[in-house]
UniProtKB/TrEMBL annotation, chain A:
This is CTLH domain-containing protein. Residues 72-123 form the CTLH domain. It comes from the Eukaryota. It holds the Pfam family LisH. Involved in the proteasome-dependent degradation of fructose-1,6-bisphosphatase. Residues 224-256 are annotated as: Disordered. It comes from Ophiobolus disseminans.
From TrEMBL, chain B:
PANTHER family: RAN BINDING PROTEIN 9-RELATED. Residues 1-73, 113-145, 492-515, 529-552 are annotated as: Disordered. InterPro entries: B30.2/SPRY (IPR001870), B30.2/SPRY_sf (IPR043136), ConA-like_dom_sf (IPR013320), CRA_dom (IPR013144), CTLH/CRA (IPR024964), CTLH_C (IPR006595), LisH (IPR006594), SPRY_dom (IPR003877). SUPFAM superfamilies: Concanavalin A-like lectins/glucanases. Residues 113-128 have a biased composition (Basic and acidic residues). CDD domains: SPRY_RanBP9_10 (cd12909). Involved in the proteasome-dependent degradation of fructose-1,6-bisphosphatase. Residues 540-552 have a biased composition (Acidic residues). Residues 156-346 form the B30.2/SPRY domain. Residues 14-24, 35-49, 499-515 have a biased composition (Polar residues). This is SPRY-domain-containing protein. Transmembrane segments: none annotated. SMART domains: CRA (SM00757), CTLH (SM00668), SPRY (SM00449).
Amino acid sequence: MSSSTVSVSAATPTRHPFQRKIDDVKPSKTDINFVIMDYLVSEGYPRAAEKFAKEANIQLPLEEESIQCRVEIRQAIHVGDIDTAITKINDLNPQILDTDPALHFALLRLQLIELIRACTSSATSDITPALNFASSQLAPRAATNLDFLKDLELTMSLLIFLPATSTLQKELTDLLDPCLRRNVASKVNEAILTSMGARGEARMRSLVRLRHWAESKARAAGKDIPPALPLGLQDADERPSDSNGNNGAAADIMVQ
Amino acid sequence: MYNRRSSYAAAVASGSTGTNQTHPAPTRSGAFSHMLNSAHSTPHNLSHSRLSRSVDADGHHSSMSNSWTRGGPLPSYSSQTGYWQGLGGSVQDIPPFFVPSYLRGSKHAEKLHEAHKAKLAAHRDAKSTHSSNAASLSTSSSSVNLHKMAPSHRGLTHEIIERTPPVADEPAPWPTKWNDGDKFAQLDIEDNGRQAKFSGSQKTHDEAAAVRADFPMPRQCGIYYYEITVISKGKDGRMIGVGFSGPKVALSRIPGWEPDSYAYHGDDGQIFSNTTSGKPFGNKFGTLDVIGCGINFRTNTAFFTKNGQFQGTAFRDLKPTMQYYPTVGMKKPGETLRANFGQEPFAYDIDKMVQDEKAAIQAEIARAKSSDKAATNETDFIHQLIGQYLAHDGYVETARAFADEAIEEARALANDEDADIPYPETVEDLDALNRQKIRTAILDGDIDKALKHTTAYYPSVLRDNENIYFKLRCRKFIEMIRRCNEMTAQCHPVPTPPSKRSTASTLNKRNSTATDEYDFEMELDEQLGVHNPTPSWDNKDDDEELDDEDDMEDKEIKLQQLTQDTITYGMELRQEFANDQRREVKRALEDTFALIAYENVRESTLAPLLETAGRVPVAEELNSAILVSLGKSSSAALERLVQITEALVTELADDGGPGAFINVRRDFLQ
């Protein structure tokens, strides 16, 4: 309706024809709220999900049992407490790690990284626990899989370089980056969801990827689209502070 | 009796037995007839249009609804029958809509279905302007609007937005039949265009007779496929060609011999494109063989099937800009081909081919990662989107909880309590809280409160957005009816409407044949042991005052008060917008007022209007308007992302590219 076009036309003086096509799309709030709820539940934000169900007047999906468990597992992985995470995953469903050796290996490697990190953080530390863990837990698995072996070798080389993190090559810093834990945690989450028969990946993620894919495809095909398709994320963060203050004050006076 | 009569008709219409307890009759109609104009004609129109609506969903609307009305089991309204007949005639001009199995759920099928429904609606509208007010009320309010609303559970409000005039670029229709106007003269087109038969004498060696379908294969389908069955290969030959050709290709030659003409021939099993000497391809085919022909517009290749077996890719490098029509040709007397453009199940499992194509593209998308961002940034990006959406739309509590949980997560990741967390505390701005209050009020059905807050905080919004103001006012009326309904249900747990108005009974008496059904239903009710207050119906006015239970009486009084208030409000509403000439306003008013015609709206065709889900769009629209008045974007970044994505996918679908295999809403938002 009129509302959606106003702000856009103000921002772009000469409107690209594609802009009109964008504005013609009227996404339904119900769909968007569904995507949000889907994300909150499947990625494990139980409190937000609960509030959202109330505020948006929508039903909370019936996955309550696993959500708390999944949150705990995620937290354990995030803080590097892989032992606890593996125990909890096995409590939930021992099949998950049995049927997904790559996931199991990724978790164990994460544990090894934490051990290495712990024993190299101070000069006096002993690296034996890390070595023992590597040879007892990871080596047997790596023996049968080339990818695993490569990963293990790379991880072990951390022992040589740490704690001098400044000179590390990128491959090694990636191992120490919290992102790795986040990725593994999210893979574990997906595996749990899939094991319950739910859709593994949150729709929000597919949607974000669809946009990337569609944009690069469209550009590759030489479609007539504007050079940039801004979402207004930054925009929304900056602008309100100005107009907001004025309006808020004015509204206050009105009320009184 | 009038309401008995109409509920019976409705029961017949919906195919259920006479024992059901639905009484969607407008027993109050008399009291409101000044608002509705001749409201008494509503019920059977409604029940009729409900029938046509349900049938329409399957794509076979016209013949059934037509025959039902022509049967005319409503003698006292015979004048109306003429109107419906007229309508039936015009609706039949629009061929029934069908979706080939492999295109079900595709975006293009949705678009075509929408266009088809719009066309039907336009026809009905055109008709209704010539007929009485009552008729226009019923057609517009129930059959057209409601059936558009029902699937998405949207409220009345969205109707106004969606009822835009048809856009210039209508979706490309798919072939439905052989085109009687685009054939060689010696072909006969039979059976509603499904069958083509060679009727002339045998042609010379070079000559043949071909026919094209009514529409080209739409590229937007991604893959288009049709099949023909050789009903007869004629006496002495099987010189039959199946394929496709451009719009200008001569129809006096067998397909495949001309430029832009491609075909698979039955006599030698060879394929031809712009040549009279074919290439070996597959088996020969003859009588009772089923030959399928398809184009994959993404790869610009064509393939054929025979009796459900894939025969291989026949042609590559089809021209991406050419319009290809399904085409068949033959040259022997008696040769007869029957086409299946998707009206019936296909012999070949084309659904699977399309599914595989979809799956491959989905997998490609899943692999797609932003080039400039690492995969892990995806999570940050999503969190930004969600945070901004929650704040933007005034989900204050959720925004706070989400930020807390996200910060918790980030802290855990960073392994550091005091780590620099990239999540800013949600800005507790006053507007967000105000907007939240307004939204909550609407979602609770308290429209007065929402109006009060809006006027207090954002006085300009309702002034500048008259349509939103109007929708809020309408919604308030709907909420009042809802309350009346709830109270009625409390006072009278028996489903039969107990109260009545004298006007209703006078109407009833006009229908002489009604008594039979009335007795019949009564008997049934008694047999079933249902408590039926109907025998005392005519004395109910007296009984009502002498209700035994005190609180019942109390409620009864409240209900009467509420009903009175509702009527008063309704009259106010009508007066306020009486001079508004806008079509959508009139329409919305008609829809809304039609509600009072029913004692028990929940069991009527108008029930969707009462659903609480209808509050959501009103709340969202008001929220957007407030945001615009504050100088903010009316849509959040996440909505923008959906819009952009959908537009991009459409762009990728228009030429038959990979976008044709994606239905953003179905595949990604549900």
